[in-house]
Design goal:
By secondary structure, the chain is an alpha/beta fold. It has a single domain, classed as Peroxisomal Thiolase, Chain A, domain 1, CATH 3.40.47. The protein contains 13 helices and eleven strands. The strands form two sheets. The chain has a nine-stranded mixed sheet with strand order 3-2-4-7-1-8-11-10-9, sandwiched between helices. Helix 5 crosses helix 6 and helix 6 packs across helix 10. It is globular and about 55 Å long.
Length: 388
């Protein structure tokens, strides 16, 4: 997407919502979470499904999703590169709207990630099945722990551990202010973090995201459509995306995330710098993901994330509000999480955060950066949002 096409307030997010109930919901399918989230987001925007002419999702075919929702889209996008997909869809929706293919785009996600847990047979012909799985590299905790182990080797185990603990505890504090968070009524101390069981060294249980049933949806619309919507539009100023590997063994550097490219590109397209950002939303599949992303986005240098988050800087009351919903670590995470980052960013920018509402100079956040990560630290999508 050309730089000149961004930095404008001509396309906005006009509706966001989750599915009705999140957590452990054994009586609802993934498509039901899709449907509930879509219905709720359309209501939030003051639109109906008949207004939707662009459909975006990942993890499910848009064929199945559109059929279930009763939508016949004029533009359809099934880009699926892990949990970053839904953040990437925002940029694709902007491009489709600018090209005239649609003017109201529905990005929807739903996943019964907890209630339908089970090992999914892999394609034995894919490279990972041949070169990684036989050696026990068989899932996200193991893949990510390999990368984190290298980071500890380069920058220090004790320092890294403390940074991870800071992120886990601060994120839980945000969840304790969010009634929709799975861990709303469950506080966490540093002792709780350090004493939690091992999952895959160096990850404790509390370094790892939740596994839940939930869905989320986002409505992106042209400025003309946004004027007729029920809520304040949150403008899409800039966006970028990339991926540099699939298998963790092929990651060019285990301590450098491709957000090092998507982040600066999105910010340049939006015409902002770090000092303009009031709210940061980062995919927290693991505490390590947050550290790597802060560095990749340029908030601090390589190996400096632990110092950057020290002293509960990212917790409520700190000067760097981060993952204010409680994140994938303590709010919800059905398997892919990027859509929920956008939901919380928009709510904060509208002033709908309730007890956890971030205040900036007495008002709501004016500029937010949202960064999704997918695969085995493989893909990123970065979006810059702004109020009017």
């Amino acid at each position: 997407m050309a730089t000149s096409s961004m930095g404008q307030r001509d396309i906005a997010i006009v509706g966001v919502a989750e599915s009705d109930v999140m957590g452990t919901v054994p009586d609802k399918s993934s498509l039901q979470h899709h449907g509930e989230a879509a219905h709720n987001a359309l209501a939030d925007a003051g639109l109906s499904k008949n207004d939707v002419n662009g459909l975006f999702t990942a993890g499910f075919s848009t064929l199945a999703t559109a059929e279930y929702l009763g939508i016949q889209p004029g533009f359809t996008d099934n880009t699926s590169v892990g949990g970053s997909s839904f953040v990437i869809h925002v940029a694709h929706a902007v491009a489709a709207i600018r090209a005239g293919f649609c003017d109201v785009a529905l990005i929807t996600h739903g996943q019964a990630g907890r209630s339908t847990r089970g090992r999914v047979p892999g394609d034995p012909n894919l490279p990972a099945a041949q070169y990684e799985s036989p050696y026990g590299i068989i899932g996200a905790p193991i893949n990510y722990s390999i990368a984190c182990s290298r980071y500890m080797h380069e920058y220090g185990e004790d320092k890294t551990r403390q940074g991870m603990a800071e992120i886990a505890v601060s994120t839980r504090k945000w969840a304790n202010l969010n009634p929709k968070a799975v861990m709303y009524e469950t506080p966490m101390s540093f002792d709780d973090y350090h004493n939690s069981r091992w999952v895959s060294w160096p990850f404790h249980l509390l370094d790892c995201c939740l596994v839940t049933d939930s869905g989320a949806a986002i409505i992106v619309a042209s400025a003309e459509k946004a004027r007729d919507c029920a809520k304040e539009p949150i403008w899409v100023l800039g966006a970028a995306e990339s991926h540099d590997h699939n298998m963790i063994s092929m990651m060019p550097s285990l301590t450098s995330l491709i957000a090092r490219e998507s982040g600066p590109n999105a910010m340049a397209r939006a015409g902002i710098n770090h000092d303009d950002i009031d709210l940061t939303m980062i995919y927290d599949s693991f505490t390590y993901t947050v550290m790597l992303t802060l560095e990749a986005l340029g908030f601090c240098g390589p190996g400096e994330a632990a110092d950057f988050v020290a002293g509960q800087r990212t917790a409520p009351g700190g000067d760097f509000p981060l993952n204010t919903s409680g994140g994938g670590l303590s709010y919800t995470h059905p398997g892919m999480y990027g859509s929920f980052l956008l939901v919380e960013a928009v709510r904060q920018m509208r002033g709908e955060g309730g007890e956890r509402q971030v205040k900036v100079n007495g008002g709501t956040p004016k500029v937010s950066i949202v960064n999704g990560t997918g695969g085995s630290l493989s893909s990123t999508g970065t979006v810059v949002l702004a109020t009017g």
